[in-house]
Design a protein that fits this description.
62% of the residues lie in helices and 0% in strands. With 50 residues, the protein is mainly α. It has one domain.
């Protein structure tokens, strides 16, 4: 017998929960992808500067 205890995944209910789940499943827009790439490049630049 294992000491590991497994709990069932909670059920997500409610209007707002469904909105969040549908938002998570969406692909990011091209504008969001570009914004993330610029932010990542800036982060790398700042890390190298230190």
């Amino acid at each position: 017998m294992s000491a590991l205890q497994v709990n069932p995944t909670p059920v997500i209910k409610g209007k707002y929960a469904q909105e969040i789940l549908t938002e998570i499943k969406k692909k990011p827009s091209q504008k969001a992808i570009e914004r993330n790439e610029r932010a990542y490049a800036l982060l790398n630049k700042l890390r190298k500067g230190n």
